[in-house]
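Case study 2.
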Amino acid sequence: MDLKVYLSGEIHTDWRQRIKDGCAAHNLPIVFTSAVTNHEASDAAGDVLGEETEPFWRDHKSSKVNAIRTKTLLKNCDVAVVRFGDKYKQWNAAFDAGFCAAMGTPYITLHDSDLIHPLKEVDGSALAWAVTPEQVVEILRYVVASE
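Prediction:
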């Protein structure tokens, strides 16, 4: 079974690559997708629709263009991994988790223990909570196990 896994959340650490590398090391049949992780490119996604003088409207247009990608990939994934880091507030990741919960798409949260309280509702709908990308790899390994 080829599993489609969407990787959502913070873009400032190597967690995505660690999951991809770990799954590749086990030859897991997984296809990974993600939002655009280049911050500048994501912020500029709506610029093709015309220049804006107000930052709100630039962000508004870019968020809608980004949502085309995000919603499509989330609707087509089998499971999502939602990462919350400690450097920035990942409101988009919380939104992705809520979208998954509403659609019935299983998701795994990935965050440190100091975020347990602020993420209690997000974790409440998750099917697993991991602290390291390596734990996520082991969960995915179990899910696609052929034995």
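DSSP finds six helices and five strands in the chain.
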